[in-house]
Write a structure and sequence with these properties.
Layout: H1 5-13, E1 18-19, H2 20-28, H3 40-52, E2 56-63, E3 66-74, H4 76-86, H5 98-104, H6 111-135, H7 143-181
Antiparallel strand pairs: 1-3, 2-3
Helix pairs in contact: 1-3, 2-3, 6-7
């Protein structure tokens, strides 16, 4: 089963009341940003449908002289719907990566350019790993969030190590391809 945006919203709201903007931030900057994606164009229609279905309620909220923002709260029916969605077998993972696409054709690139792409990505992963490790014990997380963060760290470490250990193979293939082309 593919997790839909309604279920993603219910998951965020199961952790506490939130506005549409705060829900979106979870998918852009929060712990869900690494494996889920939802923007305003899909969040607000999902919130409207969840409200119509009785899975969430809207709470008006005044904010320090600013215009009222709409806060959403999950209902018992919404918690039940979330539980039902979470108990279904997940769809197979799909990895979407611009880097993997580019590397699939890496043998066609100039070797130095290819090596720079790989070096930059290794640096990106190492920075991300360091940031995640620094934040590991500073933010309160549910047991599930801690587990998934550990899983994410394992994936990032593994990919960085693979790139470091095997980059020479693809760079050599690019070098050979470029020599043949000349």
């Amino acid at each position: 089963m593919m997790i839909d945006v309604k279920t993603l919203c219910l998951g965020v709201l199961s952790r506490g009341d939130a506005s549409g903007y705060e829900i979106r931030k979870e998918f852009e900057e929060g712990p869900l940003s690494h494996f889920s994606d939802a923007g305003f164009g899909s969040i607000y229609p999902a919130l409207r449908r969840l409200t119509e279905d009785g899975h969430i309620v809207m709470l008006p909220h005044s904010g320090d002289g600013r215009p009222d923002k709409k806060l959403y709260r999950i209902t018992p029916a919404g918690r039940h719907a979330l539980y039902q969605a979470l108990t279904r077998a997940p769809a197979p993972d799909k990895l979407r990566s611009d880097l993997m696409f580019i590397l699939s054709f890496g043998h066609l690139l100039p070797p130095r350019h290819l090596d720079r792409i790989i070096s930059d990505r290794i640096s990106d992963y190492r920075r991300l790993i360091a940031a995640m490790e620094a934040q590991e014990n500073q933010v309160a997380r549910t047991p599930g969030e801690s587990f998934v963060e550990g899983m994410g760290l394992a994936i990032y470490r593994s990919v960085a190590s693979y790139l470091e250990d095997h980059r020479h193979e693809l760079v050599a293939a690019a070098l050979m391809e470029n020599q043949v082309a000349e």
